[in-house]
Automatic annotation (TrEMBL):
This is EAL domain-containing protein. It comes from Geopseudomonas aromaticivorans. Residues 23-277 form the EAL domain. The keyword Protein biosynthesis does not apply. It comes from the Bacteria. Keywords: Phosphoprotein.
Amino acid sequence: AKQHGRNNYQWYTEHLNQEVSERMTLRNELQKAIAGMSFELHYQPQIDTRSGLVIGSEALLRWPHAERGMISPLRFIPVAEDTGQIIPISQWVLDTACRHNRQLLDRGLARGAISVNISAVHFLRSNFIETVRRALDSSGLPANLLELEITESVLLKNAERAIYLLHELKKIGVGLALDDFGTGYSSLSYLKDLPIDKVKIDRSFVQELISDPRDAAITQGIISMAHHLDLKVVAEGVETPEQAAFLERNQCDAFQGFLYARPMPFAELEGYLQRQAAL
Ligand code: C2E
Ligand code: CA
Ligand code: CA
Ligand code: CA
């Protein structure tokens, strides 16, 4: 048993070391990427359930790496959050998304807000509100054409401050969405105190909507509760016509997913919106 224990320990430390060194490497490479701001934003349209028209797009961060191809935000954002590197990156995302939607507006192609994912680390920083104001001012984007997506994690970290900040943002006029809804562990009672416009049903529920009655029940529950609270509901990760039909039957307001469109570079989004406008 002792021998076995030692082997386990050895296995554990080796893997831990690997993980630590992988994180160190990412951290160093992120530093270079930040210096040259070699990130991209891709956009995924959101489609109104009834009309089939685009009602907005979500900005999704991409890091094209010379040797390793695209590195997933799921891999590098947690590292960037730990090191604080998320701040300059998130700042760039906010500025770029605002500038892009202003360009669309100038060409008559803006279809609703661009949504930006905001990390709790950035959101809870002292000057976040000022950051949002500056992004709007310098791009000339009307506040209602920007939406911020936050997760329940901001409430777990500091609920009182988060609620205060959301009210301040509401005063500015930006849209507010609660992202990954249903995946956190916090209580539902806070929902009525949040000045948000929308909840986004996480892909993990949508994925098994048809095969797992429990996911169907949770999804129906989220939609019904959200509507009673006067919130819009967007489903993410819609991949099949069966999922879309279920969501439509249950009054989901909008869809986002590969069934309609994959995330695409800004230049492609312009073309996509141009074709939509011609319909
Ligand atoms: P999220 O906010 O839940 O974004 C939705 C993710 O689902 C995106 O992954 C999107 O590409 C993917 N997706 C959309 N439709 C489908 C579908 O039909 N099927 C499948 N399989 N996937 C679909 P992505 O772009 O890899 O982003 C992953 C996560 O990284 C995001 O999850 C978000 O939490 C985070 N993230 C992305 N960009 C940013 C950013 O600019 N700032 C911050 N803080 N986080 C970001
Ligand atoms: Ca999101
Ligand atoms: Ca999600
Ligand atoms: Ca399930």
